[in-house]
Design the sequence.
């Protein structure tokens, strides 16, 4: 997924790597350090139940990119979330990539929406976007 | 992937190759096949006629789709019919939607945070 923010790249970098700032928009993290090998855990969203997430920083390109593993306590599977920043003048393009989701057992305990007529379109659209980045 | 089948009182262990659904739908031709079969079941020939590629190529795609349970084939007289199975796809769609929603929320929240913090 991609977003462009009206903020310079170092501001965005701080927002995604400084724990004090992260707590304000991300998850309630006890601590975070943009260092390879740093591990952290947190409890997930309430709309999908309370899942404990296990994460470990695997890649850091200072000021530009950070990747960490993302897995769940009590579930098998391993995924990776990567945040990459591209300065564009006074703005920053953020590219978020979450790979490895296919290794998780499909989440069954969130509300099932009933898809009617156009659901195949939804599948193609959403999945296509997701698979093609 | 190993499947277990109970036959009378014996356990038969069968080695089944199950394809990864994501891999299966990552291909545009296979998505097109699913799209067609979403409307109605079709014979293998009818599916193949829709594409300009060779029959073996289409068969390969159909095989991948049947291996992961998205499509099933049934012999009816002289023809083989294919039909799509939506439960698996629906499961996948909901699951992907969950992550999309999660990340959309977080990226929105980041945007709000950055906007409010610009006042420094």
Sequence:
């Amino acid at each position: 997924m991609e977003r462009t923010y009206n903020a310079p790249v170092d501001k965005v970098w701080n927002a995604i790597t400084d724990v004090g700032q992260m707590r304000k928009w991300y998850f309630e993290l006890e601590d975070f350090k943009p260092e390879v090998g740093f591990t952290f855990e947190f409890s997930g969203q309430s709309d999908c139940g309370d899942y404990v997430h296990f994460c470990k920083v695997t890649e850091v390109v200072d000021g530009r990119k950070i990747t960490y593993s993302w897995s769940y306590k009590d579930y098998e599977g391993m995924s990776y979330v990567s945040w990459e920043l591209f300065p564009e003048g006074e703005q920053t393009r953020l590219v978020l990539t979450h790979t490895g989701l296919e290794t998780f057992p499909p989440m069954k305990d969130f509300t099932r929406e009933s898809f009617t007529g156009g659901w195949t379109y939804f599948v193609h659209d959403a999945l296509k976007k997701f698979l093609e980045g | 992937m190993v499947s277990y089948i109970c036959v009378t009182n014996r356990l038969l262990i069968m080695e089944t190759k199950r394809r990864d659904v994501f891999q299966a739908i990552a291909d545009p031709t296979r998505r097109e096949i699913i799209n067609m079969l979403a409307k109605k079941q079709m014979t293998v020939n009818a599916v193949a006629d829709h594409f300009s590629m060779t029959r073996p190529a289409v068969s390969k795609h159909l095989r991948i789709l049947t291996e992961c349970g998205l499509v099933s084939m049934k012999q009816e007289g002289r023809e083989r019919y294919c039909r799509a199975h939506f439960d698996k796809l629906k499961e996948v769609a909901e699951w992907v939607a969950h992550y999309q929603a999660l990340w959309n929320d977080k990226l929105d929240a980041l945007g709000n945070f950055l906007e409010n913090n610009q006042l420094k």
User: Anything to note?
Assistant: Chain B touches chain A at residues 20-23, 25-26, 31, 34-35, 38, 89-100, 102-104, 106-107, 109-115, 117-118 (CB under 8 Å). Residues 34 and 84 of chain B are 6 Å apart (CA to CA).
